[in-house]
Amino acid sequence: MRLRPLLLSLCLAAVALIPAATAQDDVRLPHLGSSADQAFTQAEAEAYGASMLRQMRALGLVLDDPLATQYINALGYRLVSSSESPKTRFTFFYPARGRNQLVRSARWLRRHQLGPDHRDAKRGRTGRGDGA
User: Fold this and answer.
1) Mean pLDDT for all residues in the chain
2) Phi-psi region for residue 94, left (φ > 0), alpha (ψ -120 to 50) or beta?
3) DSSP string covering 62-121, please?
4) Under 8 Å CB-to-CB from 82, ≥6 apart: which residues?
5) The pTM is what?
C-alpha cells in the first residue's frame, strides 16, 4: 500500500511546521462562535453545554480518566491562550472510543522517553539481536 507512506510523510511534514507557526507572534486564530453569540447568551450556552456533557457521560461517550483529562486540558488551554479571548472558559474532553489511541500514544511516548526498551535493559538485553 503506497498510501500509508504518503500519509505518514504528510503527517510528519505537518508536525515539522508546527514550531515555525508557533514562533510567530502575530498568529491570529479565528473567533469561534461569533454567530452563536447572537443566538444564545453566555449563560444559556454554558447551561446547554453542561447538559450535553452530562448526557454524553451518562451514555459512556466521554473518557473520565483524570490523567487524560489533565493532558487534554493542558493542550486545549495552550491553544486558548493564543486566541483573542484567552479568559474564556472551556470544557475539553476525550471521546471514550478513542481511549485505545490515547493509551497507545502514551505508551509510545513513554517508551521513547526512556530510550532503549527498559524491560530488555533490565534483563541484560540490548535489543541488537546478538544477545549482548
Assistant:
1) 69
2) beta
3) B---HHHHHHHHHHHHHHHTTSS-TT-------BGGGHHHHHHHHHHHHHHHH-S-HHHH
4) 27, 29
5) 0.43
